[in-house]
Design a protein that fits this description.
This protein has 5 helices and 4 strands. The chain is of the alpha+beta class. A 4-stranded mixed beta sheet has the order 1-4-2-3. The longest helix has 68 residues.
């Protein structure tokens, strides 16, 4: 699932205040179930998108830059391991937009271990040891590892998209039901209004109330137009939902780090 953005050891929101919207608490993690209200969830989502745009700017942040993060983590079972960690943001765009952060950790030979990747991703970095960690990866090796990580990430995402597509079908059906229910409720109200106004118009005609007939005729037309607008809006929304039945997939490299396990 989606990990905490500022639990990766790469990017602290507080380090980039321009990416933090007003009212956002940098200590609140993305993905936290303790989010106090919709305002904060929206703000966190905006920050998350801003971070992605910032970190995926190729001109600003190429992984070959010598300032690539270095992470040293403690896990005796895997002590001595060295590799490169590629963090990808996978976006499944359907009826809803689902974003996942997926780590891909590979060693110098490009060997990938999903369990180790998740472990390294979640372990806190030992900042006191990072200064002495000076990895030496030739550019050709890094280029190969990046391509290897992309291939792995595509395979992972393609396996996941089948499950997401099933959820998307369910989302589409539920949203159609809600849309139809809301639209029918509004149309019924307008039809009730239309019946009442048509009745008043008929009464005015029968009583020869010529001065009020134009006003009632105008209200009848306006109500009929409103019903047509509601029905057209419903049809447009249903068509838009149908257009999002197929899930689109996009994969973005968020950040990279050299990793050592001690």
């Amino acid at each position: 699932g989606c990990g905490y953005v500022d639990n990766c050891g790469f990017l602290q929101l507080s380090t980039y205040p321009l990416l933090c919207p007003s009212g956002y608490n940098p200590q609140v993690y993305v993905g936290s179930r303790g989010m106090p209200d919709l305002f904060y969830r929206k703000k966190v989502a905006q920050s998350f998108d801003a971070i992605i745009r910032y970190c995926t700017d190729i001109e600003r942040n190429r992984y070959l830059n010598p300032k690539v993060a270095r992470r040293v983590v403690h896990q005796p079972e895997h002590a001595g391991y060295e590799g490169v960690q590629f963090n990808y943001v996978v976006t499944f765009n359907g009826v809803q937009i689902r974003k996942r952060m997926n780590p891909v950790v590979v060693d110098r030979q490009g060997t990938y271990d999903s369990d180790l990747s998740q472990l390294v991703f979640t372990l806190p970095a030992d900042e006191s040891m990072e200064a002495t960690f000076n990895p030496s990866f030739p550019i050709s090796v890094l280029t190969h590892l990046e391509k290897r990580s992309q291939t792995i990430m595509i395979e992972i995402a393609e396996q996941e998209i089948e499950r997401i597509s099933e959820l998307n079908v369910q989302d589409c059906a539920q949203m159609k039901k809600r849309l139809m229910r809301l639209c029918d409720y509004r149309v019924r109200n307008q039809q009730t209004e239309l019946t009442q106004r048509q009745t008043r118009l008929q009464e005015a005609r029968e009583k020869g109330q010529r001065r009020v007939i134009p006003a009632w005729e105008g209200q009848v037309r306006a109500t009929q137009e409103r019903i047509h607008e509601l029905e057209q809006h419903r049809d447009d929304e249903l068509a838009a939902l149908d257009a999002r039945k197929t899930v689109d997939l996009s994969i973005d490299l968020l950040n990279v780090a050299y990793v050592r396990v001690v």
